[in-house]
Amino acid sequence: MFMKTVCPKVIIHGGAGSSIKGKGGADAIRKSLHSIIEEIYALLANGSSATDAVVRGCQLLEDDPRFNAGTGSVLQSDGQIRMSASLMEGQSQRFSGVINVSRVQHPIQLAEALQGSDDRVLSDYGAAELLRDLQLPVYNPMTKLRLQEWLQERQANFSHKMAGVIAEDELVTSSEARRGTIGVVVLDSLGHLAAGTSTGGKGFERIGRVSDSAMPAGNYATADAAVSCTGIGEDIMEECLATRIVVRVTDGLSLVNAMERSFKEARKNQRDFAAIALDANGAIAWGKTSEVLLAAYHTGEKIVDTLNMTKDVEFLSI
Description:
Order of helices and strands: EHHEEHEHHEEEEEHHHEEEEE
Shape: globular
Strand content: 15-25%
Oligomer: single chain
Distance between the termini: 27 Å
Low-confidence stretches: 170-178
Largest sheet: 9 strands, mixed
């Protein structure tokens, strides 16, 4: 039987927050985002599934020490790194994730391994046991910049609420609050959607604090739409942002209307976050209440990024 194919789409993010310091910083972030988009899209062009492309994209973002996920994750108040990640496949609406896992290179890989499990979300000890079961090597994701950031904050008695989303020398001494998460949303050539989100957390937070990144509030997908969020996790949870947007699309709203309504409500509630989204028709959307969203997307013809965009919501029906 002939199966109709669609033009694949991909959108990724590396966090949200205040303005990027210096043109050099923006150029470096843009180069990272564009190179990752190119690799993901090449996979999709060769027939990769949405889920496989999302996992690979998250791994690449987790490996980039500029972003707060995997290598380069921020430190919690006790000086330890605890990461969270989730993966959701839209056709089956299967969600899986890990919460506050340590000593692993790719938290998204643990979330992927749980897709076929009866127990699909594991916290610290369970995730550590899964790491052993998978025989993955123990890995230290800490970088010198993140350690320096934590040491400086400890001297200031942890006066800041969170760490920097981007790990750059000039930002270690910055007081600007930034929110660090990575995310990937994909529509593959069969029209299937998937979303993945990974984070090192806020940084300097209370031990045991749980991020939205391992919850449907921050990462959600159905056959109709898929969303990954970034920003203040507590704000994302309280709006149940990713699920709210996707459910509105499933209930009949267009993706742009679902995003516009959700972000209008968010601004009214003084929330601080951003989201990237795709729908089954290939529409691409992103929205933010923060000053900057570090995102890029592939339309099927070209790569575009949001680093210099001032709009709060952008929608492209391709």
